[in-house]
Amino acid sequence: MNAVIAIAVALLVLLLAGAVLLFLRLYNDSVRRADEALRMLAAERSTVDQHRLALRRYEVAFASITGRGELGEQMLVETARSLGLREGIHFSLQTDLAGGGAARPDMLLMVADGRRVPVDAKMSMACWTEAIETDDAEERLEALRVHVRNIRSRAADLAAKGYQRWADAIYGTIMFVPSDAAVVAALDTDQDLLRWLLDRRIFLCGPTGFAVVASAALFAATERALADDVETVRSQAAVAHRSAGAAVDAVNLSSTHLQRFLSARRRELDALENFRAAVAPLTEASASPTPIAAVRRVEELTANTGTNGQEPPLD
Length: 315
Fold this sequence. Notes:
Elements: H1 2-63, H2 65-82, E1 91-93, E2 107-110, E3 116-120, H3 126-133, H4 137-161, E4 173-176, H5 180-189, H6 193-199, E5 202-205, H7 207-285, H8 298-308
Parallel strand pairs: 3-4, 4-5
Antiparallel strand pairs: 1-2, 2-3
Family: Belongs to the RmuC family.
Protein name: DNA recombination protein RmuC
InterPro entries: DNA_recombination_RmuC
């Protein structure tokens, strides 16, 4: 009986020890999971703080014309470069058109014949952002109306600056908005907005519309470059033709002089031959052992040169 009780006690002790070990393991796992959750929570809080700071910077940037211009210009440049346009060749940034800084669009697109297209990128997007973030229909409509008023205000400022006086490719100004949805929302909110903008020669467009305009400018610049290259090749061909004509004239002139020289040389040789024939009786009368050497002809000189590969000695 005592043995049975001892065995039961031992089993109970083992069970208690196993339960304690299991409890300790579960406790350690829960502590580890709690620590991991705390680390994840801290990381999420850090991310939220970073997003809040970034949002604050964007709010500050959008609150000023300079900030909006920098952000819009950055998106303009990225869109233009993604289409293959190069700064200094197809477009320029912050170009002073009138002098003194009174007319300085964010971008100028270069097209054919030295014409330029002004592009402005200082449109505010704050109200449109509020419109898409709110869930209230009335607040959304009011934010869109303010968005339309901002577009009209900026368009009036651009029309007053009159960029087309110096950049007259389209006799107007492109007002770039960084979102196609913002453009569509404004046009849907105010049905008269498009006509009002066109009356003032202001062309409202988002990234897609600007891509179309920039591609057309790139095509025009490429056509202009090809035309310039063709004109350069044509002018160089004309210069080469004149040079070839002058070279042929020089060869013809030298050939004429050479023919005259050969003709005079033949006459000289004939005269020498006649003189030799006239002197021959005197040589015979003087009983000279050495006769007068024969006069060499040009044909003989040429034959000797071709046979021996060396020029004959001069007499």
